[in-house]
Write a structure and sequence with these properties.
The chain is an alpha/beta fold. It contains nine helices and ten strands. The chain starts with a strand and ends with a helix.
């Protein structure tokens, strides 16, 4: 169990997270949704202990440190790989440093995305780099896999196929926390939706509950955020002067 208790984070005087409380059990695919600047990336970086914060984050009751950090992996659109190394060299490096590294999964996903093993990653396209970032995160052997906008630069077919593969390869102990703006694409693949706004968790619902309510994920987000359906009409009226 990954537990987040009263976690707050400030960048100077700007509040990025405000007393966040969450429990993330193993075996779930969780969508994390919010506007730009809502706190999604900051929350993930706090979990990983990349930034200082107030509050408490524990993994099975223990603080996140060098002893258990390998149980958490991170796929970020900012990238965490070594650009001058080839995928084959990354594989060898990860096998040395992560005892639970899944070489079979790594090879299978490399084949799925048709990525070259012996080409320096810096020469990959933007979409290929993001694919490779996801492959490393999924192959590390982590129990919790954090993904921050991992599919930027990938076409819709690649994304949809990957979601299906993801559902097929995850083990019962593996959880994914997926931050994305692609609500309608992922609502059939996640088991739970978290909504964050201005550093606060404002929505937390299982997809089963949402389905039983007869609402779509987009409906739930609009309702929770108090979306103003006529905001475009009002903006055009103000911009053009037409009634």
């Amino acid at each position: 169990m990954l537990e987040i208790k009263k976690v707050s984070k400030y960048y100077g005087t700007k509040r990025a997270l405000d007393q966040v409380n969450l429990c993330l059990p193993q075996g779930e695919i969780i969508g994390l949704f919010g506007e730009n600047g809502a706190g999604k990336t900051t929350l993930m970086k706090c979990i990983l202990n990349y930034v200082r914060y107030s509050g408490e984050i524990t993994l099975d009751g223990q603080p996140i440190n060098r002893k258990n950090i390998a149980r958490i992996s991170f796929a970020t659109c900012e990238h965490s790989f070594f650009p001058t190394l080839t995928p084959q060299a990354h594989k060898e490096f990860y096998q040395l440093h992560f005892p639970r590294f899944d070489a079979r999964r790594f090879t299978g996903l490399m084949d799925f995305f048709a990525l070259p093993l012996h080409k320096a990653v810096k020469h990959f396209s933007a979409g290929q780099k993001n694919q490779f970032e996801v492959i490393l995160a999924l192959s590390q052997g982590a129990d919790y896999i954090l993904m921050d906008e991992p599919f930027a630069g990938n076409d819709v077919f690649n994304r949809e196929d990957f979601y299906k593969v993801l559902l097929g390869i995850l083990e019962p102990h593996e959880s994914v926390l997926l931050s994305t703006h692609l609500l309608e694409e992922v609502e059939n693949f996640i088991s739970r939706a978290l909504l964050i706004r201005q550093g606060n968790i404002v929505g937390d619902i299982s997809m089963l509950e949402l389905d039983e309510s007869g609402k779509s994920l987009l409906d739930f987000v609009k309702e929770t955020y108090h979306y103003q359906a006529d905001r475009v009409r009002k903006a055009l009226r103000d911009l053009t002067g037409e009634e």
